[in-house]
Each structure stands twice: as C-alpha cells, then as structure tokens.
Design brief:
By secondary structure, this protein is an alpha+beta fold. The protein has one domain: Histidine kinase-like ATPase, C-terminal domain (Heat Shock Protein 90, 2-Layer Sandwich), CATH 3.30.565.10. 33% of the residues lie in helices and 22% in strands. It has helices at residues 24-36, 45-62, 107-115, 145-155; strands at 13-17, 71-78, 81-88, 118-123, 130-136. A hairpin with a 2-residue loop joins strand 2 (71-78) and strand 3 (81-88). The structure holds adenosine-5'-diphosphate (ADP) and magnesium ion. The site of magnesium ion has 4 residues, from helix 2.
C-alpha cells in the first residue's frame, strides 16, 4: 500500500516529457542513461525500467491535467537505493486494485507494490498535482565487478 510522504531527498536528475504514451520509451531510455553513469547502476535497471514505465503510463493515462502539462521524472541514487519519481499535474491518486490475476488492468501498481521496496504518493510542494515515488533495491546476486577483477588477477 502507498506510504505517505514525510520528507524529500535531494534529486540528482530531473526531466520533463510530453504527456503522451509515446514518451514512455524515452522515459525508460533516460533512466537507463542515468544508471549507466552510476557505479553498479545496472543492478537497478530491470525493475526500475519496468516500474518507471508503469508509473509514467499511469501519469499519461489517468491524470486529468490539461494535455499540455508535462510529466516530470526524477531519479536519485541514495544510500544504495534508487528512488524514481513521476510527477503529474492531475488530481487523482494511484489506487491499487484488489486483484490483477485475470485482468490486464491493475497490473501497474500491483507490480510497483510487489517489486519496489517502498512506494507512495505525495502532493507536489508549492504546485498542483502529485508525484508517485518508488524506492528500488539493487538486484541480488549481480556480479560485483571488483570481485571479478580480483579473481582474474589471481588466475593470471
Ligand atoms: N498518476 C495517476 N493519477 C491518477 N490516478 C492514478 C494514477 N496512477 C494510477 N491511478 C489510479 O490507480 C488505478 C490503478 O493503476 P494501475 O494499477 O496502473 O492499473 P491501470 O493503469 O491498468 O488502471 C488506475 O486505474 C487509476 O484509477
Ligand atoms: Mg497502469
């Protein structure tokens, strides 16, 4: 279930995209580029790209904001967790559906709830609308490049 917002962490990347379904691949591409510049950023890629795609699609599909209002993305890697945010100027709130088993609808927040360490929705400070955030843990069992290098050095 969504959590309430108590504080705001510093943001390290922000971009605003047009509120259209065909902006979703660009949102995912920006996240991939952001993570490619972070140490071990690939450990977050699969889940974070999936969840960002769902949150972005929701902002486009469900927001009642005027179509010319942009959707804002924010990414920050803080203390070993990736935080993603998707801001829209609409008034509704993300509302997880009770069941998603036999229905394509309701899949987005089901996935967010299952795969994010935590998530929530907050009003935008000093502005209209809200943002939905998700905190993503690194994937377990990912090869640590420093360990791989050390093993290679020993073998040689
Ligand atoms: N950004 C948003 N703004 C307003 N309502 C939202 C937003 N995101 C999600 N919702 C609400 O939460 C519901 C569940 O979202 P989701 O699980 O992604 O299912 P779906 O998008 O298939 O309806 C949506 O149907 C919508 O009512
Ligand atoms: Mg959805």
């Amino acid at each position: 279930m969504p959590e309430t917002c108590t504080h705001h962490r510093p943001h390290e990347f922000a971009a605003r995209l047009r509120s259209r379904p065909d902006s979703t691949p660009l949102a995912r591409l920006l996240l991939r580029a952001y993570l490619s510049g972070m140490p071990q950023g690939e450990r977050y890629s699969d889940i974070s790209e999936l969840l960002l795609g769902e949150l972005f699609a929701n902002a486009v599909q469900h927001s009642d904001a005027p179509p010319d209002r942009l959707v804002e993305l924010r990414f920050a890697l803080v203390a070993g967790r990736l935080r993603i945010e998707v801001h829209d100027a609409g008034s509704g709130r993300p509302t997880p559906r009770a069941s998603s088993s036999d229905d394509e609808r309701g899949r987005g927040l089901f996935l967010v709830n299952e795969l994010a360490e935590r998530w929530g929705c907050c009003p935008r400070a000093g502005g209209v609308g809200k943002f939905v955030w998700a905190l993503i843990s690194p994937a377990p069992g990912f090869a640590d490049p420093t360990v791989t290098r050390a093993r290679t050095a020993v073998a040689v």
